[in-house]
């Protein structure tokens, strides 16, 4: 299990090959990559800046993975989240989960992403031609997280 | 008791504070009581910590609610709801 918070971009292919290397019991890898959109709540987004809480961020991401492991069979999991300035179309986040079977890998990956959205201390600030503003929370993110309380 | 405080995102920007060391009177303190104390620093503090905007708090890197107790040496943080991913 590992989490990384970094300024630099990441190579999804490389990260997945590292994650599954010499684990012959793995039958499935599910990964999610989040990207910067150029259009959000208001205007055209020219740049995004991500702030986080060093120390708590890593701890909360590890706690989310640990929680996923109590619900599904997870062989290994990796979260990479970028911080600092980001341009539209750049990669922000990678969640990759390996498991013996795809069902566990799909569910755990989605669960980790939903919890990351509401529990991990990251904040996005959008820069538009009209000025900069902090991104507001979406209630759909809370709903996405809460549905895990009602299903397995 | 002595605590270390951190502020993030909109709070950090508006309050113009990222971190501070604070000595509290020797009596029980909850997150809510600490917010009320800080709110007395002025209108902006009141609006950011006790106003309409939702504020989340953490003690020693764990998310907590308003009723959580603060102990000597704790690291306390205030920040808006998170928007990563």
Account of the 3D structure:
The complex is a heterodimer of chains A (152) and B (85). Chain A is of the alpha+beta class and 152 residues long. Chain A has a single domain, classed as Alpha-Beta Complex (Aldehyde Oxidoreductase, domain 3), CATH 3.90.1170.40. Chain A has four helices and eight strands; from the N terminus they run βαββαβββαββα. In chain A, the strands form two sheets. In chain A, strands 1-4-6-2 form a four-stranded mixed sheet, sandwiched between helices. Chain A has a four-stranded antiparallel sheet with strand order 5-3-7-8, with no helix packed on it. In chain B, helix 2 (31-39) runs antiparallel to helix 3. The longest helix of chain B has 9 residues, at 31-39. The radius of gyration of chain B is 12 Å and the shape is globular. The mean pLDDT of chain B is 96. Classes of the chains: A alpha+beta (152), B alpha+beta (85).
Secondary-structure blueprint:
The complex is a heterodimer of chains A (152) and B (85).
Chain A: E1 2-6, H1 12-20, E2 28-35, E3 47-52, H2 56-71, E4 76-82, E5 84-86, E6 91-99, H3 102-119, E7 122-128, E8 131-134, H4 139-146
Parallel strand pairs in A: 1-4
Antiparallel strand pairs in A: 2-6, 3-5, 3-7, 4-6, 7-8
Helix pairs in contact in A: 2-3, 3-4
Chain B: E1 2-7, H1 9-15, E2 19-23, E3 29-30, H2 31-39, H3 43-50, E4 56-59, E5 62-64, E6 69-70, E7 75-79
Parallel strand pairs in B: 1-7
Antiparallel strand pairs in B: 1-2, 3-6, 4-5, 4-7
Helix pairs in contact in B: 2-3
Q: Could you state the order of secondary-structure elements of chain B as H and E?
A: EHEEHHEEEE
Instruction: Count the E strands of chain B.
Output: 7
Here the CATH topology of chain B equals Ubiquitin-like (UB roll)
- Name given to the CATH architecture of chain B: Roll
Give the count of helical stretches of chain B: 3
Structural class of chain B: alpha+beta
Largest sheet of chain A, order of strands side by side? 1-4-6-2
Portion of residues in helices of chain B?
25-40%
Instruction: Note the total helix count of chain A.
Output: 4
Instruction: List low-pLDDT spans of chain A.
Output: none
- Biggest sheet overview of chain B: 5 strands, mixed
Shape of chain B: globular
Report the top-level CATH class of chain A. Alpha Beta
């Amino acid at each position: 299990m590992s989490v990384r918070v970094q300024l630099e971009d990441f190579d999804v292919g490389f990260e997945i090959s590292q994650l599954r290397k010499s684990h012959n019991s793995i039958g499935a890898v599910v990964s999610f990559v989040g990207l910067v959109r150029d259009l959000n709540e208001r205007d055209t987004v020219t740049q995004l800046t991500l702030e986080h809480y060093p120390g708590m961020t890593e701890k909360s991401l590890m706690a989310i993975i640990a929680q996923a492991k109590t619900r599904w069979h997870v062989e290994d999991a990796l979260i990479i989240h970028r911080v600092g300035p980001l341009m539209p179309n750049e990669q922000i986040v990678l969640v990759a989960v390996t498991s013996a079977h795809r069902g566990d890998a799909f569910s755990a990956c989605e669960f980790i992403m939903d919890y990351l959205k509401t529990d991990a201390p990251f904040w996005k600030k959008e820069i538009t031609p009209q000025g900069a503003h902090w991104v507001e929370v979406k209630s759909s993110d809370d709903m996405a997280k809460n549905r895990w309380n009602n299903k397995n | 008791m002595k605590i270390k405080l951190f502020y993030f995102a909109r709070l950090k920007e508006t309050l113009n504070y990222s971190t501070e060391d604070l000595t509290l009177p020797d009596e029980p303190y909850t997150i809510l009581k600490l917010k009320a104390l800080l709110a007395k620093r002025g209108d902006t503090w009141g609006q950011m910590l006790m106003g309409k905007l939702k504020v989340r708090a953490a003690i020693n890197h764990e998310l907590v609610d308003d009723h959580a107790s603060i102990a000597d040496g704790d690291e306390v943080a205030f920040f808006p709801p998170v928007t990563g991913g």
